[in-house]
Specification:
GMP Synthetase, Chain A, domain 3; 30% helix
């Protein structure tokens, strides 16, 4: 097993933080020498490089969103002054915007950790259904698969019928792509008269680029005996985190620094709290510090039974713009959807008001079944809401049946900001 999978993934967290601090400081020093944009950022802030000595100090720098990166590259093409002119660029990828992304060295471990954690390696034939055209996906996933010794079938975004043929003819053992596309391939196989579980050898799948709903994961694993894994990343910064066999959160890659921040301030939120995922990838080619993904997540610090010691991301809760902030904490639609699933016999609605500069959270409950024990329901609902959203409900109101309509908003925000 390659050394970087074992030793680096299992070091004490204190050692990891020290190592990442040194990498950030080294990358900042290099960026100040070789990037006009980084020098301008420091000049605009009146900063000297000696003022950043810790990861906490690093939060002085601004978060750069994708929209901001597009603007910067348009003003200073092609790389907004963030690239290192002294380094050879292997490839330049293009994503909508456009955003031009100089490719990191092929020595980078892009996606290899994720595939190794999923049990993919020598002897596997993997159908890579990510696009190979212009964007980073296909080729970077391809490189990760080769690093773990797998044989790659670069099927890209070919039709589902051709994917079925490739899986069948080449005895593919694993798939990487989006979950929805794998489902369409399976459906096409059934249309063509195959029994997917019996006639195909796909036993592992690694997904990225879109969510994997629990119901679809259950379908893949129960009906088709496909062991599924989620991977998370962004084209601008590469792979960020991945699931291990325990599937209890996504391990943060050793090659990146992940911060969970308040989008309004760019400052870190306490562990376990929801915030925006901000990523810096250690490299000497593209000095994109503190890239704001726009995704919401929170950090799991407890040890993982798999033996990896890195902190984990607790999945993706949605996008920053879809969440509402109450008393400094985000409530994401995905959190509310989980509560809805747990209380299928109850409709509810959140009302957010503000009194004397204090947020008031009221939850309106509408039981669909008669003779509900209101006190018991209130206690159970309040506990799950607090566990899921890390917020205490200020008021609970019970409504008559039919008050909340199917298409009514789940969250009503009546706060006035003056």
């Amino acid at each position: 097993m390659p050394d970087y999978y074992d030793r680096r993934e299992c070091i004490p967290q204190e050692e990891r933080e020290h190592r990442k601090t040194l990498q950030i400081l080294e990358m900042l020093a290099s960026g100040l020498r070789k990037s006009s944009r980084i020098r301008k950022i420091f000049d605009d802030l009146g900063l000297h490089h000696d003022e950043i000595k810790t990861l906490a100090d690093f939060q002085i720098l601004p978060v750069i969103s994708r929209e901001k990166l597009i603007q910067l590259e348009a003003m200073d093409p092609p790389f907004a002054g963030l690239s290192n002119a002294d380094e050879e660029i292997d490839r330049i990828f293009i994503s909508p915007g456009p955003v031009y992304e100089p490719h990191l060295s092929e020595n980078d471990h892009l996606w290899a950790r994720a595939y190794h954690a999923a049990g993919i390696g020598r002897g596997d034939v993997v159908l890579n259904a990510f696009s190979y055209h212009m964007v980073a996906a296909g080729l970077t996933f391809h490189t990760g698969l080769r690093r773990v010794g797998a044989t790659v079938v670069p099927s890209g975004t070919s039709s589902s019928q051709l994917q079925v043929q490739l899986m069948r003819d080449l005895s593919a053992t694993a798939y990487t792509g989006t979950p929805s596309f794998l489902l369409s391939i399976i459906n096409k196989a059934h249309e063509l008269g195959y029994d997917f579980k019996r006639d195909f050898k796909i036993r592992r799948a690694c997904f990225a680029a879109e969510p994997l709903p629990p119901s679809l994961r259950d379908k893949f694993e129960r009906e088709y005996a496909i062991d599924t894994y989620q991977m998370y990343g962004a084209t601008e910064v590469g792979d960020v985190s991945f699931e291990c066999c325990e599937k209890k959160g996504w391990h943060i890659c050793e090659e990146v620094l992940v911060e969970i921040v308040d989008p309004a301030t760019g400052k870190g939120v306490p562990p376990g709290m929801l915030g925006e995922v901000v990523v810096t990838r250690f490299n000497n080619i593209f000095f994109l510090f503190r890239f704001g993904t726009g995704d919401l997540s929170k950090i799991i610090e407890s040890p993982c039974p798999c033996g990896r010691t890195s902190f984990r991301m607790d999945g993706i809760y949605g996008r920053v713009g879809d969440a509402v902030k109450v008393r400094g904490l985000f409530i994401a639609p995905s959190q509310l959807n989980r509560i809805k699933e747990a209380f299928g016999h109850v409709r509810f609605q959140l009302l957010i008001t503000r009194t004397s500069h204090e947020d008031i959270l009221t939850v309106r409950l509408e039981p669909r079944e008669p003779a509900v024990d209101a006190a018991s329901l209130a206690e159970k609902f309040s506990k799950l809401f607090r566990d899921e959203c890390v917020l205490t409900i200020d008021r609970l109101e019970f409504l008559n049946p039919g008050t909340i309509k199917e298409d009514d908003k789940l969250v009503i925000d009546e706060r006035q900001w003056k």
